[in-house]
Amino acid sequence: MAALVWDGIGLMRPEDPGWAQQRIVLDALPALVFVERGGMIVYANAEARREIGVEGAWQERPVDDVLWGLHAGTAEPRTHITGTGRSSPFHATLACKNGRMTPVEGTQCLVDVLKRESVIVAQVAGRERTRKPGLMEDVLASLPEAVVIVYGSKVLYTNPAFTRIFGFLADEVSGGELREFMVPETRLYEHSMLQKLVDETGHASVETVRYNSKGELVDVAMQVSPLQVSGGKAGYVFTFRDISERKQVEAKLQHDAMHDVLTGLPNRALFADRLKQGMNRRERRADRGCAVFFLDVDHFKQINDSLGHAAGDALLIAMADRLLRVVRPHDTAARMGGDEFAILVENILSVQDLDALAERILAELDEPFEVLGHRLQVLSSVGIALVRNEHRTPEEVITDADVAMYRAKQEGGHRYAIFDRHMEVQVSSQQERERELREVVTNREFVYWYQPIYWLADGRLKGFESLLRRKMAKGALESFRDLLPVADETGLSISLGRDAIESACSQLVEWDRRMPGNEIILTLNLSRRQFYQEEHLEQLGRTLASTRIDPSRLLFEVSEGTLNENPDKALVIVQRLVDCGVRIAMDNFGAALAPLNHLLRMPLDLVKLDPKITASVTGTGRQQAMVESLLHVCRAAGMQLVAHGIETPAHLRILQEMGCELGQGYFLAPPVDAKQAEYLASHNGRASMVRGR
Length: 693
Hints:
Blueprint: H1 19-28, E1 32-37, E2 40-44, H2 46-52, E3 61-62, H3 63-66, E4 67-68, E5 87-95, E6 101-112, E7 117-124, H4 127-130, H5 135-142, E8 146-151, E9 154-158, H6 160-166, H7 170-173, H8 187-201, E10 204-211, E11 217-229, E12 232-242, H9 244-257, H10 268-284, E13 289-297, H11 300-307, H12 309-326, E14 332-337, E15 340-348, H13 351-366, E16 369-371, E17 374-376, E18 380-386, H14 394-410, E19 416-418, H15 424-442, E20 446-455, E21 461-471, E22 477-479, H16 484-490, H17 492-514, E23 521-526, H18 528-532, H19 534-547, E24 554-559, H20 560-565, H21 567-579, E25 583-589, H22 596-601, E26 606-609, H23 611-615, H24 621-636, E27 640-644, H25 649-658, E28 662-664, H26 674-682
Parallel strand pairs: 18-19, 21-23, 23-24, 24-25, 25-26, 26-27, 27-28
Antiparallel strand pairs: 1-2, 1-7, 2-3, 4-5, 5-6, 6-7, 8-9, 8-12, 10-11, 11-12, 13-15, 13-18, 14-15, 16-17, 20-21, 20-28, 21-22
C-alpha cells in the first residue's frame, strides 16, 4: 500500500487532453483513489467505486458525505500539509451503499494549496494483510532487480528489491523525482543521454552509480523502458540490478593484472603506461622534465643462494616499502622483475633534482634490513635516463636507464649514473659478449646435462630437463644462463635450439636402445626467438621423422612471458607444435602473472611454477593458498603442475601434502651428465627421494 502513495503528481481535469490516459492509470491501481477539489470528491477510481457500490460514472459529492472523519478540504487545508508538498496519513470511515460503514486508512496528498486539490489513496483497514495479491504484484515483489514505475516525472511505484538495494522505503520516494537519486555530477548528462536512447531505440541500458539511503554509492546496471498506457507513453519503467560485487571483482582483477604479486607495486606494463602519459605531458610542458630511475640490488643472487628465496622475497618487499617512502605521491615506483625496480619522476626542473633524488634513494637503501632474523646491509646501483626529444617509446627510456644502471655497476656499484650518449663502455661490453658467444657456438664449447623430474607422490622418475652447460678451462662447466639473452638478441639461439632438438631426439634413441620399454621424457627450453621462428617448427618435423621417436616424449617449455607477449599468435604456434605430437609446458608460471585465460585457452600439458612461487609454499597462508589455487586450476584444466626449485625438505613435504604431481630441484637431484641420467633412469631414481621422506 505504501508503495502506491501519490504525492506531488499533477492532476488533469476532464477537459484536459491527457485526462483519459490518466484515468486509465488511476483505475488500474489496486487501491481506493479519490480526487478532491475545493471540498468535493470529483473523481473516484474503479476500485473505490466498487467498494462504495456506485454504478456508472461518479457524481461529485462533498468529502464529508464520502469519508467521515477525514476533515480535509471542507475548511482550510491542514497546517502540516500546507507548504510541505507531501502526504499526511489518516484513518476514516467510508460511507458505502445501503448504509454500510467501512473503516479505511491511507494517505492524503496535497497537490495544489491554492486550488485546494488533493489525492486521497486508501485501503480498507486490515484488508491488505488478508487480500491475496494480484499476479503482477507477486511478480514485481519477487524480482531480484529493483523496479521503479514513473508516471509523468514522479515515482508511482517501487518494489521491495528497491528498498533492499538502496535502503529507501517506498513512501520515502513515492511522489518524488527519480533524478533525486542520481549522482549530482552526472545526472544532467545521464538524463539527456537516456532520454535520447529511449526516444531512438525504445529502451536504454547503462552501467552507472546511485546513492543509497546512507549516502554511499552503489554500482548498478540500469534499464529504462517507456510505460505504455492505451497506446501512449505515460511514463517510464526503470530496473536496477546491483553489480557492486562484480565491479569489485573486476577492479581486483584489473589491479592484479597491472601490479606485482610480491610487492604490490605497479608492474612493468603499468609503469610503461604511466611513463607514456608522462612523456605526453612533457611535450605540452617543455619546461618540465621527466625521468626514469632504474635500480637493482648488487649481488642479489648471493642473498638468494645463501639465505634462500624466501629471504630474497622478503628483502624485495622491504625494498619496495623503502622506495615508497622516498618518492613523492605523484611519482610511480614499480617492480620491473627480479630484483629490478624503476621510478618515474615528473616535473624535473634541473639535473640537480635528479642528483638529489638519487642520493636520497641510495641513503634510504643503505639502512640495514631486518629479513627473517637476518640483518642485511644491501647495496644498490641506480641508472637514470632523462626523457629527451629523441625518445619515441617508453621502452627506449627504460633501456637507457638500464644501460646507465649497468654503467654504475661497472664503476663498482652502490652509486648512480646518468645516461648519456657517450657510454661506449656498455656498447663495447655487449659486443664482447656477442663475440664470446659466437666462439662458444662455432667451436661447440657446450654440452647437455639433465636435471631429473620426479613424481612427488612416490618418487618415481618422470624424465629430465635438458640444460646447456658451457665448457670452461680444465674441464669445468658453467651455466649458459648469462649468455642466453645475448643468444636471443643476436639470433644465435636459433642454431642452439636446432642443436638441442637433434641432441634430445638422439639421446632418447640411445636410451631406448639401452633401456627398451622405458617411458622417460625430455623437456627442452624454448627461448622467445626460438618459439616464434618458423624454421624451428620445420626442423622439428624433420628430426622427428628421421629419428622415429615417440613425439609425446618431447616436452617444450615456453616461458609465461613469451606466451603472454602475443597470446593469439602464441596460441597458433602452440597448436602447431601440438599437431606435431609434442607436448607443451608453460615455464616460470607466476613470474609475470599471465592472465589465467591465456593459460586455459592453450593446449598445454604441464605448468612449471617459477622457483620463487615454489619457495613461497613455506611462507604465509596467503602464499600457500595461491599455490593451492594454481593446483586446482591445473587439475580442472587437465594439466599437471611441476614445482620447480624444490630446495628444502619443507618445500617437498608441503608440496606433497598439497598433492602437487611433479617436482624438480637441487634438494631432489642436481643436473647430471648423460651417463648418470641413464643410471638414474635404469634404477628409477627413487634413491634421490629418500631425503625428502
